[in-house]
Amino acid sequence: MGKRILDQVSATANGRSFIVTNRSVLAIAVPMTLAYLTTPLLGIVDTAVVGQFGDAALLGGLAAGALVFDVVFTCFNFLRSGTTGLVAQAVGRGDELEEQAVLWRAVLIAVVAGIVFAALAPLVAIAGQWFISAEPRVSEAMAVYIRIRLLAAPFSLINYAILGYVLGRGEGGLGLMLQLVLNGINISLCILLGLKLGWGVSGVAWATVIGEFVAMLLGLVIVIRRFRAAPRLPRHRLLDLSAFLRMLSLNRDIMIRSFSLLAAFALFTRQGAQFGTVTLAANAVLMNFFLIAGYFLDGFATAAEQLAGRAVGARTAVQFRQAVRLTLFWGFGLAATATLVLLLGGTDLVALITTSKDVRAVADIYLPWAAFTALSGVLAFQMDGVFIGATWSSDMRNMMLLSFLVFSAALLILAPAFGNHGLWAALHVFLLVRGFSLLAILRLRMRTAF
């Protein structure tokens, strides 16, 4: 009891005191779960639009192109997650100027990196074709998708920064609105350009470019109007070298973590391609289900980021422990629900996504593997949220590298022995190692942080 009182006094002294409850967790997690679910919904619509052409090569090309895009952009996901952690800690300390400074530092990085990647789109397409090493028609469709979609690079990365700022402040409703605008425009234009006008893969890519641009404009208008009513940010505070170095260090670790994550998914896709075009297409359909399960969990991981980060900023261990417990409890509940839904309705979803009977038949065989990724991955998602919010990035980086090595070993052993079943089993091994390795480190980190 005495320790709890001391923690509450510390929170009040260092920033804004707060209490972590089921309601505070759900206030962030529910809207962001809905927001994140629009992203795999977009992936399903993209896949369904191209799938209506009944050509497995086009479907495989879209999947491979989306993978290459994700390899590039998810490595810059630190502009979202790193910004969330730093802003949440500033909120915990009650430092309004630092909240602004974190956002604009992230936006500066986003502009520079986005322009570079947009300019390098042709080279990225060539590198993607070399890595995937698929049949010519798959490679051609993949290159078209990449060259167009990378034009949205500056817009996409700025959107990451804005969303990170919003979530760092715990504004799940605003985050939901921004994501609904982004993905709503994207889905509508995908159907119009890709299917109605018959542009196919190129229409899907152009829909993304336009959606990202409109969402960026809306997000900038919102934050600029907000900052006009807040204390003015001095230039020296924005360009503070030590703060920039801290952000770059955090971003470096998250980038390595994200690259390792995407490298695992890239190896998964590449191995699927070696089993044939139909298996590649079937795995692409099922990976959308994995994303659905993942985005269910991401809502509670986001709540863990904000609440854990805020607790670290306020230097209060009670709220930190409560944030860990409650986000994990709700995460497991939602993971079980997602698994049940996919087991019961997954076959119908496969039929909805693609008209290819061969792809449907193969996808139905491996559907249970995709359905159970929610349960095997829940701890990994939730621990990632805690460590990102607390900005314990080096631990997260190291455990991700360890998990990638274990996944690679499992892939080498299980895929040759059990084919595509072994490939999916290796993915589950990867998720489990990620979660339990971070959980093992958490107690040690808490002793030093508080």
Question: What labels would you give this structure?
Answer:
single chain; mainly alpha; 2 domains; 18 helices; globular; disordered N terminus; transmembrane; xenobiotic transmembrane transporter activity
Description of the molecule:
It is a single chain. The protein has 450 residues and is mainly alpha-helical. It folds into 2 domains: 20-239, no CATH class; 253-449, no CATH class. The protein is built from 18 helices and no strands. α2 runs parallel beside α9 (172-196) and α4 runs antiparallel to α12 (241-274). The longest helix has 38 residues, at 277-314. The two termini are 16 Å apart. Mean pLDDT is 85; it is low at 1-15.
Annotate the secondary structure layout:
Layout (H helix, E strand, L loop, with lengths): L1 H13 L7 H30 L4 H19 L3 H16 L2 H24 L1 H12 L3 H14 L3 H16 L3 H25 L4 H28 L6 H4 L2 H34 L2 H38 L2 H37 L3 H15 L1 H17 L3 H26 L1 H30 L1
> What amount of the residues lies in strands?
under 5%
The biggest beta sheet, please? Answer: none
Q: Find the structural class using helix and strand composition.
A: mainly alpha
Order of helices and strands: HHHHHHHHHHHHHHHHHH
> So how many helices?
18
What Rg is obtained from the alpha carbons, in whole angstroms?
21 Å
Say how many strands there are: 0
Tell the overall outline: globular
Please bin the fraction of helical residues.
over 70%
Number of domains: 2
* Distance between the first and last residues' Cα: 16 Å
Global mean pLDDT: 85
Low-confidence blocks of residues:
1-15
Membrane topology: Multi-pass membrane protein
Subcellular location: Membrane
GO molecular function, one term: antiporter activity
Keywords: Membrane, Transmembrane, Transmembrane helix
